[in-house]
Amino acid sequence: MAPAAAAQSGAAAPRQIVPPKEVVTKSPTNAVVIRPGPSVNIIQSLKVKRQIALPSVRSNPVVKLQATNVDFKPVLSNPRALFNVADTLRAAPQLASVRTDDTQIYEVEQGLVVRSLLAYEIKPGVCISASKRAQLASRGVACATRLDPTKRAEAFANPNDPHYVADPTERANAIAAASKHSAETSAAIDIDIADLRARFANPAHKAELVAQLGATEVARLQGLDDESLKTEMVNSGEMAIEEVMFIPAADKLDNARNRSGNSKTKLPVIKSNKKQLQTTIFLTGFTLGRTYEWRQRVEKSIKWCIAGCKKTYYAEVFAGFNYGFGLRFPIKLDGTYKHTDNGGKSSATVTVNYAPFNGSTQDYAATGLPADKLFEGKEIVAQFGAHAGFGYKIPFYGSLNVDAKVGEDFTKGLEGDYANGQFTPPAPGQSMPPLIKTFSDIDLIAGRANFGVVGAKVFPAVKANLQSDDLSFTLRDNVLGTDTPINATGQTVNLGVEANDQTSSFTIRDPIYNLGFLITPGLVGRVFIDVSVWSHNWDWPVWFPQLAVKLPPDGVDFACHEDTVCSRNYLYSPAGAIETTGAKAGENTPFHKELAAWSTAFETKWLPQCLDKKCKTGIKLVRLNTELEAKQKYDAAPANTPKPVSIAVVQPSLDKAEASAATLIQESKDRQVNKETTKKAGAGWVLIYKAVWLPKCADQLCKTNVSALIEQMPAAAEVKQKQFPDEGSLQVQAKVGQDFAPKLQKEVDDSKARVSQQRTRDNDTRTASPPPETPPSRKP
Description:
By secondary structure, this protein is α+β, with helices and mostly antiparallel strands. It has 16 helices and 22 strands. A hairpin with a 2-residue loop joins strand 4 and strand 5 (111-122).
């Protein structure tokens, strides 16, 4: 195990995994915890306001974080949470022993940090017993799995396996690399096992082992065959896993409030004593935005000789991800107006009917929503951006770091009741089926973290629950000057009637949709490390504390969606009726108008400059995050101080957005240059590789085969460039060279073997043939 951080102030520092110096996290500049260095050191560098122990959270899982309540139930109930795995292992001491189990929650200025570390050792003999292996797996810990060539190929072809590589060519290369490393590692392990056998045979060394393990255990190990002994050793030693997650305090919750006025305009009428209200569609909704961080470090130590010859395998995977998550709730409203004349005394009523429904693009457009916000009539609108990475240091293989940025539309992967982001919002008193989805086709490391013998994938996940508590409107009687809540569909309201012309004037406005809303963002991290023919896999679902939005939040209901019509005016009389639309909802302060103008100008300026979809998604995410930051700044102004009137107060955020956009544009240009350069350089690479490899051939067959392989390299380079669009042309060339070098070398080696065999056969033929007879010499 890597050394723990030094003790501070006389007290021992918490144990932690210290990453090898070769593994340096490539994290975003504004990252809170996914920065280079040991996790405890990073946390100590933050301004810690308070530290919360795990038992305290277990007794009271709802933690107050500034203006938000953070619900830890999803973390506590996750059976794969490290502290829960530790509890299950402690309950089975015959299978494993827990060396370290430490979970702490820290409140820092930016939010909450949760750090967990679990270190354990599997007991001797467990992994060579089928029944005990199964018992251990049921407790969240698995022994290493043996991979023969067939099983290895199956693992790389299985989408549910962390080894999986989608592209057939890349898969073949990964399998070749894994097989090569397996052979090299096996040779080294054979040496260590031979050394262990020698220790068993040496009385002095055996006595040392007996003193360490006991005579019974040494006798058991000595009686195992080599394969069983290797299985025992590869599962021995300490396994340590450290996980850190960051939950932000700042959250943006946008919902529009209608500011429509009353109407008492005299309008032309047509004859009607009873009138059906025209069907009107209202739209309520809101947007949420947050940024989370997560990192997991894995360290496996194996003592191949029991005492000495220890080797340490290290891997880490991280993700910082943000999302803009919006829900829109279309509501269909109609009803019946009725006028009654009872002996010269007039009265009027209106009965209002309404219900939420699954709206189409046309329905959304009917609310007045701008075209750029229709989103195909989806009730769920979700954008997701992430910066993720992976690093490792493996004996016999070396170390490496990779990272990637991705942006995705989440709604494309939703299924069932939420398919493609389309669903019918729940009516009051009803709830939607829970949404639980892992997006296994979206690897946040973009497929760049599979190196054949070690690799990782990180998939985003989400849980969501919706339950409606109320749906209401307000009816403004413009004759009486009164407001009446419409709390249930089918409700009838008495209306005022003008004495002179028998008209009733009223406005139905302000749709308010109360619902219980819980969203739990998550990740599924899959890591594998292969040691010779054994594979260690870790598949950890991670659920972040629930973002519980209590409606109404801080006394504000989710109301009419911004930029949509939020009221309708009615003027009815016995002679006729007419209806008009009211004002649109929106944030009409100078600050919000200026911010909206900035957002439009920002996308108008930058989107046309993007050369690929990745850039365009990035621009939209930058715009969204900047908007949310600006609105947070506006909302954060104390109640007793004037609100900002200009977006100049968030100028640093606007400048940062411009700089980020410029970087995204340049990256898209670089990717285009990389693509074009790789394509143009293909012919030159062919000439260079032929000049290097053809002279190494020992026969014509080799030259033919080598030429054919080299001719395939330009196409392979273009495929590789698509897989690694941010890599330079020379870097891609190097990767392709690494892929083809073993194949080219094999052709050369085979040619030399053929020539050598031919020479041997020729020599054998000459040796087997009798020498020609020498004619007798004649005497003169």
